[in-house]
Design goal:
alpha+beta; six-stranded antiparallel sheet; five-stranded mixed beta barrel
């Protein structure tokens, strides 16, 4: 049968992915597996980078792969292959079975509970191809970089502007009879610039990312934002050590939510390596904070009708009125904890943080005097104690306005105090990632400098 134009964009047609999954599961049953699951995936992408008006790199990828997990009773084995020939698929299954037979039994091992599997799979509008050619990408990147360079003559160098497009598809299936999958896309434009003044240099960047090409910011807007952000960082100062309120700009504020997700995820909880053990029902955030998991947002970056085990995803409150309502669990971690899966095998889905009416400028005015953080450095977060210490750069704010840029500082505190000390969340929500939040104002942190 001739393939459609859409199918020729991928290495294999969708029907072939389903057939591969059936072959893998049949082989697993024939060779003695009591249960098995497989994921068959494929994708392709294109990335073009322009630097100083000239093409620096053109990258193109086109790939496919198969993973298989088998269970022999309560023993588990896993293998993968990029070769989809019948011989290679059989070999991968056999390797997984060999591994399973030599591992220890684990009472929590196994497929998801059948009643949790997705039955009615919603259409989430996740696939939007972008037929951008290499020539188009070069032209877009050049316009982006040119807009950045035009911001100020002190922008003397460029780390490049990049235009990328990616499309992927997968089928997940298991021996409980579940089989499902879908196509998705993710496209972006980014720009990073370098400015120099009085012998000192600074860099900054900006980017746009979306599933739908039409929802990307204009290339010129991305370039201008990168240029303006870079210029604003020139002539940065150091601060003396002090206590001060801190505003985390929206793109870095999502990291605070990420630390919470890690602390209430299954692996951290059953290993007892989290500062938020047994936190369901506890007040962890300020009372006005609500965090919703919304896996069915159309075109959402982290939208998914089911998780990595085929379990149906559900919209739910994770935090309400500052109180933790639930964890992030897959089947294995849920069994380890004596709980039920939350449909989070593979991670969280579109965490949306509630916000007030303050825009970014109003949030700075509410802070009055303090630190605006626009960049975080290092990994100084202890997930067991919640102690938080990160290198930072940004701006010192006086009377609600930027006074001057700052660098080579450290912000420190404990995540419990930071979460409870959230004064407000701005309405400047950054929707480019899986954690959607506006800028976050925290009442007090230690700002360490010279």
């Amino acid at each position: 049968m001739a393939m459609t134009n859409d199918e020729t964009r991928f290495p294999l047609p969708t029907a072939a992915l389903r057939q591969i999954s059936e072959v893998v599961l049949a082989r697993a049953r024939e060779q003695g597996a009591s249960a098995a699951e497989t994921e068959v995936s494929q994708g392709f992408g294109q990335s073009v980078t322009v630097r100083k008006g000239e093409v620096e790199t053109i990258e193109y990828n086109r790939d496919k792969g198969v993973t298989v997990t088998v269970f022999v009773g309560k023993r588990r084995g896993h293998a993968s292959t990029v070769d989809t020939s019948p011989v290679a698929l059989a070999a991968a299954v056999d390797k997984a079975l060999t591994i399973a037979r030599f591992t220890e039994e684990d009472d929590c091992a196994g497929l998801a509970d059948p009643e949790r599997l997705a039955r009615d799979i919603p259409e989430l509008d996740l696939y939007h191809p972008w037929g951008v050619t290499v020539a188009d990408s070069i032209e877009i990147a050049q316009r982006c970089e040119a807009a950045a360079l035009a911001v100020d003559p002190r922008i003397t160098n460029s780390e490049g502007a990049t235009v990328s497009a990616h499309e992927g598809e997968f089928i997940y299936a298991n021996t409980l009879g579940f089989s499902g999958g879908y196509r998705s896309s993710r496209h972006g434009i980014s720009c990073s610039m370098i400015a120099e003044d009085r012998g000192a240099m600074q860099r900054d960047y900006w980017y746009t990312s979306a599933r739908l090409p039409g929802e990307l910011e204009a290339a010129e807007a991305v370039g201008r934002a990168a240029g303006v952000r870079t210029i604003r960082r020139l002539n940065a100062r150091k601060l003396t050590t002090r206590a001060a309120p801190v505003v985390f700009e929206a793109p870095v504020a999502s990291g605070l939510i990420g630390h919470f997700v890690g602390a209430v995820s299954g692996g951290s909880l059953y290993r007892k390596s989290s500062f938020l053990l047994d936190s369901v029902g506890q007040t962890v955030f300020a009372p006005h904070i609500r965090i919703r998991e919304m896996p069915h947002l159309p075109r959402g970056v982290a939208s998914a009708p089911f998780d990595d085990e085929g379990v149906a995803t559900l919209t739910r409150d994770v935090v309400k009125d500052g109180v933790v309502q639930g964890y992030f669990l897959g089947s294995y971690s849920a069994r380890k904890l004596g709980l039920a899966t939350t449909g989070n095998a593979g991670g969280s889905h579109n965490l949306v943080v509630s916000h007030g009416d303050d825009d970014f400028a109003a949030l700075l005015r509410r802070m009055g005097t303090g630190l605006l953080v626009t960049e975080l450095l290092g990994q100084g977060v202890n997930p067991v104690t919640g102690d938080y210490s990160r290198g930072a750069a940004g701006y010192w704010i006086e009377n609600g306005k930027i006074a001057y840029p700052v660098e080579e500082i450290t912000i420190a505190g404990n995540l419990r105090d930071i979460y409870r000390g959230i004064v407000a969340v701005g309405n400047d929500v950054d929707r480019r990632g899986a954690r959607q939040t506006g800028s976050i104002l925290v009442d007090n942190m230690t700002v360490a400098g010279s």
